Protein: adenylate kinase
Organism: Selaginella moellendorffii
Amino acid sequence: MISGAPASGKGTQCELITDKYGLVHIAAGDLLRAEVAAGTENGIKAQEYMNKGQLVPNEIVVSMVKRRLEEQDAQEKGWLLDGYPRSVSQADALEALNIRPHVFILLQVPEDILVERVVGRRLDPVTGKIYHLTYAPPETPEIEARLTQRSDDTEERVKLRLKTHRQNVEDVLSIYSDVIVPVSFGSITSSLFAEKSRFV
Ligand code: AP5
């Protein structure tokens, strides 16, 4: 599992870790955004909460993540769960299925840096790759031209997301205290790609 505040670098590190270990990356936020994009009933409901930076209700999230964990690729290759669980009830739902991580990576980054990362983040809709206009700029003008920005990546909304994170994080950490590996800002530098071999 990997956890951390909004824009702490979970998705970025997941790309590197799954490349190295061949795991299946399962991100609760990505699953929710796929529902939103498909315009499903769950997606329409989830969008309301995501816009406010709040947790999407368990009745949507819990079964969605459970289904994804049970798919064949995750069962065969192992998984890296990103942004889940975010509450005691979500962790309890996993415990009830006897699902526990071997390692719980906790990314720790100061809040002023998080805001800067959110505002500069861009996504490539073709490859799914995460960029930052300053820290991880696109490789070519062609890629730059097609980059998109998430609707919740504004300074105003990230402050709401940070508040929700602060309210829930300690409870979740207490459940996985025996397997937590903290990674602090400074141990991962801005040169994301140079870090590839050093991380983990
Ligand atoms: P989610 O999509 O999980 O968003 P989040 O937790 O806010 O995290 P982000 O995706 O914003 O950031 P990240 O940590 O992956 O950072 P990234 O690598 O992109 O959730 C969205 C919403 O869905 C939630 O608000 C909630 O409503 C709902 N939701 C999700 N999970 C839920 C759950 N379990 N239950 C209920 N609701 C749920 O990096 C950010 C930027 O920084 C990038 O531009 C990157 O290039 C740059 N960067 C990364 N690392 C570095 C570095 N070392 N140095 C410099 N720049 C860096």
Q: What stands out?
A: Residues 2-184 form a domain with the Rossmann fold fold (CATH 3.40.50.300).
